[in-house]
Amino acid sequence: MKELFPPKQVMGFVLSLTLTVVALSVYFLNMSFAVGMTVLLVTAFVQAGLQLVVFMHAGESEDKAAIYTNVYYGLALALITVFGTLLAMVWDM
Amino acid sequence: MDYFDRFAIPHPSPVIYASMVAIGITVLAIIAGLTYFKKWGYLWREWLTTVDHKRIGIMYLISALLMLFRGGVDAIMLRAQLSVPENKLLDAQHYNEIFSTHGVVMILFMAMPFIIALMNFVVPLQIGARDVAFPRLNALSFWLFFMGAMLFNISFVVGGSPDAGWTSYFPLAGNEFSESVGTNYYMIAIQIAGIGTLMTGINFMTTILRMRAPGMTLMKMPMFTWSSLITNLIIVFAFPVLTVTLAMGTMDRLFGTNFFTTDNGGMDMLWANLFWVWGHPEVYILILPAFGIYSEVISTFARRNLYGYKSMVASMVAISFLSFLVWAHHFFTMGQGALTNSIFSITTMAIAVPTGVKIFNWLLTLWKGKIVITTPMLYSLLFIPLFTLGGVTGVMLGMSAADYQYHNTMFLVAHFHMVIIPGVIFAMLAGLTYYWPKMFGFMLNERIGKWAAWLIAIGTLVAFMPMFFSGLDGQARRMYTYSESTGFGIYNMISFIGALVLAVGFVLIVYNIYYSTRYASRDISSDPWDARSLEWATHTPVPEYNFAILPQVNSTEALWDAKKKGHVLFKGEYEKIHMPNNSGVPFIMGCIFFAWGFSFVFGMWIPLILTTIGIFACMALRSFEKDHGRYISVEEIEETETKLRGAN
Fold first, then answer.
1. Interchain contact A69–B (C-beta under 8 A)
2. Where are the transmembrane segments (chain A) (predicted)?
3. Fewer C-beta neighbours within 10 Å, C or N terminus of chain A?
């Protein structure tokens, strides 16, 4: 049974479904913009990390270092782009 | 017939009708020629369905050269129009269309395929691999790029060219101010080509990280491979931004969304912002492989190993990160505050530091070297002073307070041409001449090559130096004419003469190819330049499996060590070699993408849906297809190797 239902993947699957439901609740429940955005951002990043580690097997091969370096690099650039854009287009306009 | 009215040119002229006729005649001539010489089967088997990185590289090269001439003709028309005040050669609309297509064609359909051509041909050879990691994906990349480029190029005879500049800023590029389908072509053609480039990025990163020859650690890779790795890293991180931005622009134009509109919560400035989030890293995508070529050429012809290998690598890694931190310097005058402008000014100047490190490394490689001035070396030596002119004016533009003076003037136009031509084009021409014998089995004529190099260098200076002065005098870019009293006439006349000199230089390169094809000796060794890295260790012409035995590497200059220090590159016996099969799917998928793009441009929804299904059908076919490749037997390898050794 353990081979048919590996606990890590089953837990990951349940968790990813839960995260989807929580994200969907932003649409169906009445909440403020700030709360809704926070929920979406948190669930989105946890979901992405979950998919990467549990289902795409990052960190299980010898390329571990290269894969995580690229992920962190991409994350840093995404944050720079978002906050740089906010700075140039909104905060300092 | 109303249905077909949409394909009419909104702003026709005799030149465009003449082009239509010329295109028609060319297509007929190609079809007739292929039929007469019975080359259809050859074309399909050897080129259209190939997954060989060397052939794909050569197809990229041919496309790039074709686009160089398309963009070059645009440039000559622009300079001719401006050569005298109040010229009537082109009207405002045509001028707009020509400068827009000149920019897009030169950056995306000439410079990009040129660097990808050299990467495709050289990188697998340089790391001792037999092909790229995903050969069929590589073919798909090429066909997507090619179909994107062709879609963009038919715009001027079907439906109208884009006319909102190569940056296509909103709100000008929105439906309100750009009514023709021209800007749809821009959005969709670049989208298709961009998807191809993104795939190339993933493909080459995987290839370089996973498929190096035994013993070649990261810090033993040749410099061109290092620059390609960093370039593809930037492609993977920058091109998704372009994809998303173009998709948003397409939706604004075709589906009535409000991302970049001026009302309903849209923000037109966001286009400029997102465009340059991609656009600035794009500059480094172009220049880093060029730097890689210079590193190879300079160390080969200075007969010395590259000075400061580690600092070269470190500076490229630094550039890859800094290139994402400077984008707002393209719009210092858009209204953001002094804080933002100061931040982006400082990051801009910071990026000059790693670039400077590289220049000094090249100079120190030349120091005490036994310099041999061949054509590729001549381009590299001409690059250093000319590029410095462009670079220094770039630092001037990078100072945000001063930029208010230069912004949107010919000074800016002069700057980026003085960077891109010596930086990228000289490198590509150097690389073309340098790798030509490996690609085609003969060398280009040195005498004609050097004439072309000098003419192009002089032409660049004569064409672009006057723009610095007319720009400082206040000549705005993208103006289709000016009055005599402005005094810009003399500068623009000199520029026009420079453009003609450049044109002569490029024609000489074509003549050189013709002349050398006819008269050059085919009796050359596999290492005619006495070079240092692995791509010269295999035969010329390169067999389809590249290396009969995978090389063993223990330094950055494996071939040089093999020649001078007796290091043995190829150890062991022949074994059967696993190679991928050819496939027609990438080409067919490219054709479907072309029809998809065309339907999208004109908002023809039923063909669009059908072609979308076709694209997914191709992908499904690939998923369920069982293709395990084929093996080249030991006997076949022995036969090929004996034949190639005999030829040398």
1. no
2. 12-29, 35-59, 71-91
3. N
